[in-house]
Amino acid sequence: MKVKHLVLLVLGFLILVPLILNVLFPRVELYLAEKNITEGNEKEKQEILELLNTTKIESKKWEIIQKYMIEDGLSRQFDIYISPSFTMGGSPIDDSTIYFTSDEKIPFLKEYIKEAPVDGYLHSAAMVLSSIFQSEGEVEKAKRVLHDTSHRFTAQDSYFREELLIERIRIAKNYREFDEANQYIEELLDSLDESHHDIIAQIAQLKAEIILQQGDIEKALVEVEKAIKNYEEKYQEDIEEVPDSEKDNFPSIENHVYYQSLKTLERSLKVSNNTGKPVSISGKVVRSDGTPMRGVGVFLRDKQNANRSVSPEDSFQVITDSEGRYVFNGVIPKDYQITLGFYYSQISGWNWSVNMDEWIAVDGSKNITYNIVLQKLIKIREPVNEKIIKDKIVHFEWEAVEGASYYNIGFGFDIEGGSIGTGSINRISSTEIDIPIDDIYNINGGISIDEEGVVDPVSLLAYTNPENRFNWNVSAFDEDGNLITKSNGYRLDDKSIGDLPFFYLKERELTNADKLLLDNQKDEALKEYIINYENDSNDLHSLRMITRLIGVEDVGYGKKEDEKVVSYLEDLAIKSPSESTLFRLMHYYYDENKWEDFQKWFDKYIDIVKELNEYTQSIYASALMKQGYHEDADHEFKEAMKKDGSNRFVGHWIANELYRKGLTEYVTQIAKDNPFHSYSGNEANWLVILNNCIEESKSFSDYEKELTKVLEIFFAGDTEELDNWLAYTNKPQMKKLIEAIKSVK
Asked: Contact at 8 Å (CB) between 593 and 713?
């Protein structure tokens, strides 16, 4: 099957959503997965348990345990991981999956680690069993399993032995048993061969993390620097033993994972040593009914790791106790996100309603409390269970949520291997609504592109395709716009599955142009759509498809709208106005610096949406700035930043205030209070950029005068003159500032 990518065409604020399970997610058959396991596969499961209890053939028993109780624990400790930036897990389950509970696994894993053959599976079995014990609050048992199993490995299998003992140290560290962890470290170091560089590096990092959790950044930094120097010396000794003819193929030290991990920690400690002291982050994980969530994995992750898969080597990881409590100590000043790990039984019917751009800002001045409340999923009522709709009005209904001020409905449709979710109807004050079918047709779907760059025609037809299946979800918000809960989540048992959010729209039939499109004859389809529209100016479907097909092969983040599509977009906006069409027009004229046209379509856009989201408000603020309305722009930027946890447009706000107030403390404070968060890892550090400019300005008497002039060139959209200045300026820090402002999108 070809690999699919996702490009979001229409709503610019959606473009930055990471291409992860929040956008391209498995088919909602996931909702039925656990139901199949508990019903259709229960008999087979009991047969397997019976076989394990009665078989006299040990090799067969070990094989079954490996397949059903070890392999499913190798890739991840928990079934599902949820964070602000991603959701992972759940999708491997299918109709044939046999899922065993922890209680069912424990006796067989215990037997396995005592009697099974000594190999990689033995190492994995110990890790899985230790993880289960941790989730149940049995920390001593978790450590003992690792220690006892390590003794089964001989010197020939020392790597597995050492990895188990490393994990025992990590557990002791995570539970603040520092004396015990240090004792384990000394015991392991006494038995290590000096050639085991990676194990020694892991130990050094754990020692530094222990010191850090005790509050001593300087001492931790010394430990890390010593470990790095030792690693580099050992690496040099190794490379000197390699024949000259093979040195080019010898792995660079930069490719050594544990060396890089030490270097990353070193950089963080050097920065933190000048910005603040280590603090603690603690809190509770509870359900909204007050039930504490025991055995939930809690992982604290910085920007560099926030959108990566959880790893056993994560520095900050712990499991909640019987009261749902967790605590992390020695947290150095940075921005962090929490990732939670759940078993199916813990999350089924519930969700963690967290915004994608929710960060925990640690400045080193105080300890932080961060409580997490799981909310019940909203029950949906209509349409459900693959209902076929042929009317021109679609009725949606769901249960009320206490404290909700309004609701948003989101939509999705099936594609090969998954589903795309894009588009919404927002700010609904009731728990039911009748939506004209054209309003759903007007929602542009995300565009699915395979690895060869071919656009999936199903994603172009989106919600106008009578042969495709659609899904919907509803989210509830309080009066301040905070997400309370939603309907889409994990429903993995009979009690929580309820009605499934599927429906078909069969009010229309496929046209010949639609059939050409589905046959991947895009050019021929476009020609026929254009002919259809020329023959019938009321043919909204053909007009709609023209706006989706023109320039579709050139789609991509940062690409401007094709000029040829604009007149069609204007026709569609007049005949069937929608949020997505008006947004495209507004954004086109913004990119072209045509402010009269921008304002015309912006006014129509605000009439429909009523309230700007963080992205569109930032675009509006930027438009005001470029037109010279700097005080109005300042107000709009302030309001946008309150809504936007990523602070994506803070660079434009800084440009606006630099023009108004110059290189002042007021502007640097904006940068400090509103750091840009990006999952790409390439975000501008505006505070550093501004401080560098302030330092550079001391060498030039006319520095701020020139900065004002360059900003005027940027506001005017004079690309040629701006590029010329960038090419010849003798002020490198100002150049970096202007380049960063240019890159804001």
From this structure: no
Region of 423 (left: φ > 0; alpha: ψ -120 to 50; beta: rest) is: left
Q: What is the pLDDT of residues 228-246, one digit of tens each?
A: 999 998 888 888 888 888 8
User: Would you give the DSSP letter of residue 705?
Assistant: H
Evaluate whether 279-376 and 380-484+493-509 have a shared fold.
yes
**Domain map of the chain by residue range?**
32-272, 279-376, 380-484+493-509, 528-611, 613-742
Check residue 80 and give its pLDDT. 87
- The larger pLDDT score, comparing residue 408 to residue 363, is at 408
Q: Residue 26: is its pLDDT beyond 70?
A: no
Q: Which DSSP helix (H) or strand (E) runs through 374?
A: strand 372-376
Mean pLDDT of the region 637-666: 94
End-to-end CA distance of the chain: 34
Mean pLDDT, residues 651-663 taken together? 96
The CATH class that applies to domain 32-272 reads mainly alpha
Contacts 24+ apart (CB under 8 A), 378-382: 378/474, 378/475, 378/476, 378/485, 378/486, 378/487, 379/487, 379/498, 379/499, 380/472, 380/473, 380/474, 380/487, 380/498, 380/499, 380/501, 381/499, 382/432
* CATH topology for the 380-484+493-509 domain: Immunoglobulin-like (2.60.40)
Three-state SS for 550? coil
Instruction: Please tell me the pTM assigned to this model.
Output: 0.77
DSSP string, 667-678: HHHHHHHS----
Give the separation between CA 353 and CA 374, rounded to whole angstroms.
7
Helix (H, G, I), strand (E, B) or coil at 428: strand
Has residue 702 got a pLDDT over 90?
Answer: yes
Name the CATH superfamily for 279-376: Immunoglobulins (2.60.40.10)
